[in-house]
Every structure is written in C-alpha cells, then in structure tokens.
Automatic annotation (TrEMBL):
<dbReference type="InterPro" id="IPR027417">
    <property type="entry name" value="P-loop_NTPase"/>
</dbReference>
<feature type="binding site">
    <location>
        <position position="88"/>
    </location>
    <ligand>
        <name>substrate</name>
    </ligand>
</feature>
<keyword id="KW-0963">Cytoplasm</keyword>
<keyword id="KW-0547">Nucleotide-binding</keyword>
<feature type="binding site">
    <location>
        <position position="145"/>
    </location>
    <ligand>
        <name>substrate</name>
    </ligand>
</feature>
<feature type="binding site">
    <location>
        <begin position="18"/>
        <end position="23"/>
    </location>
    <ligand>
        <name>ATP</name>
    </ligand>
</feature>
<keyword id="KW-0418">Kinase</keyword>
<dbReference type="InterPro" id="IPR000623">
    <property type="entry name" value="Shikimate_kinase/TSH1"/>
</dbReference>
<dbReference type="Pfam" id="PF01202">
    <property type="entry name" value="SKI"/>
</dbReference>
<dbReference type="InterPro" id="IPR031322">
    <property type="entry name" value="Shikimate/glucono_kinase"/>
</dbReference>
<dbReference type="InterPro" id="IPR023000">
    <property type="entry name" value="Shikimate_kinase_CS"/>
</dbReference>
<dbReference type="GO" id="GO:0016301">
    <property type="term" value="F:kinase activity"/>
</dbReference>
<feature type="binding site">
    <location>
        <position position="126"/>
    </location>
    <ligand>
        <name>ATP</name>
    </ligand>
</feature>
<keyword id="KW-0808">Transferase</keyword>
<keyword id="KW-0028">Amino-acid biosynthesis</keyword>
<keyword id="KW-0067">ATP-binding</keyword>
<keyword id="KW-0460">Magnesium</keyword>
Length: 183
C-alpha cells in the first residue's frame, strides 16, 4: 500500500455511535503510521473528566461547547495531516459542519440500528444511550442526523459485515481516487 502523504487533506470520520469511528480511526493509524485524533479523547483531556462524567456533572450543552472548542483547535492552520475520529453528535451545529468539511476528506460510517445496538450494548460509556429504550433513541438520532452527515460526506460507507481492516483499506482507496480525480 502506498503512503498517505500524497493525500492533501486529513481523513475525518463521522457517523452515529457504534459505527466504528474510533476503531476504524485506529486501524487507519496502524496502516498509515501517522496520528489519529479522537475528539472525545481530546474533550476528556481538556475537561479532565470522562464523557459520562461531563454529561452527568455539566450537562450535554457543556459537552457540546467543549466539542466545538476542540474542533476549532483542530482546524487551526498549519497542523500536520491526521486521521480525525469524531463523536456522533458533532454534526449538530452548522458551524461544526462547516469546519469538518474544510478539515478533510469526510467519511460517513454507517450501520443498521440492530448492529449499532449490539456494538454499543457492550459498555455503558455513551450517556445518550443510558435510557430505557436505546433502540428508539438510536432510531431518532438516525432520522435527525442522517441529512447532516450526508451534507458533509465525501464518502458514505456501510460497515456491517465488514472487518475494520477492510473498512480502513476501502477508505484509503476511495480517498486516493477522490484526490486523483480532483487534484
Ligand atoms: N466493522 C466492525 N465490525 C465489528 N465490530 C466493530 C466494527 N466497528 C466497530 N466495532 C466495535 O463496535 C464498538 C463501537 O465501535 P467504536 O469504534 O467505539 O464506534 P464509534 O466511535 O463510532 O462510536 C467497539 O466495540 C468496536 O470494536
Ligand atoms: O452521538 C453522540 O451525541 C455522542 C457520541 C459519542 O461518541 P461516539 O460516536 O464515538 O460513540 C460521544 O461523543 C458522546 O457520548 C455523544
Ligand atoms: Mg468513538
């Protein structure tokens, strides 16, 4: 596989919780050997609290403020190219969508609701899903957010049934094609 350095932009992963942004981001890092950043991890470092603690102690609005602040920092000019995994709700704000579009090649990772439920049911670190009916919540978020992901996506990828390595390789192949077609 040829190196990513020929790609002119970051790779940005968006999509609902459990679609594999963090995991595929790590896989891309492994394949390419250059840094992967997860906005949720930057938020946790900044707040010195876990995502669940931020939601519990400060509320979702405070979390969204931190998320926008981190995205602004990542958008500063002159930063080296990276793989950026985002939190599923980052597309909620219009200003964030604008920054994400500018930041890189945006990949929307998708999965059916059943698969998302299965993948996210393994742990309790997603406060939005700590409800009586997580399926209903995922369905609602899917309806609300799908047009927002679509608005900024350069690539839309269904991930169910695919290994994370296959997804990462597919992203690289598509990104190369995209930038070759549009230098
Ligand atoms: N393509 C995949 N196939 C199987 N399991 C996956 C796949 N992508 C992610 N997972 C698993 O689903 C869970 C959620 O993945 P994660 O990367 O945290 O998603 P996100 O960051 O989009 O919320 C993790 O346990 C991860 O190992
Ligand atoms: O969809 C959301 O609003 C959220 C998704 C989470 O990230 P992942 O999509 O990586 O799970 C995390 O940012 C937070 O729990 C809120
Ligand atoms: Mg994640």
């Amino acid at each position: 596989m040829s190196p990513i350095e020929d790609l002119p932009k970051n790779i940005v992963l968006v999509g609902l919780m459990g679609c594999g942004k963090t995991t595929v981001g790590r896989k891309l890092q492994g394949l390419l050997g250059y840094p992967m950043i997860d906005t949720d991890h930057l938020i946790e470092e900044k707040a010195r609290l876990s995502i669940s603690e931020i939601f519990a102690r400060r509320g979702e609005t405070a979390f969204r403020e931190l998320e926008s602040a981190v995205l602004n920092e990542l958008s500063a000019p002159g930063t080296p190219r990276r793989i950026i995994a985002t939190g599923g709700g980052i597309v909620g704000r219009k200003a964030n969508r604008k920054l994400l579009s500018r930041l890189g090649y945006v990949v929307w990772l998708q999965a059916p609701v059943d698969v998302i439920l299965q993948r996210t049911g393994r742990n309790r670190d997603r406060p939005l899903l700590q409800t009586e009916n997580p399926r209903e919540k995922i369905e609602k978020l899917l309806v609300e957010r799908s047009p927002l992901y679509h608005e900024i996506a350069d690539l839309e990828l269904e991930t169910s049934g695919l290994e994370t390595e296959e997804i990462a390789c597919g992203i690289l192949e598509s990104a190369r094609y995209h930038f070759a077609a549009k230098p």
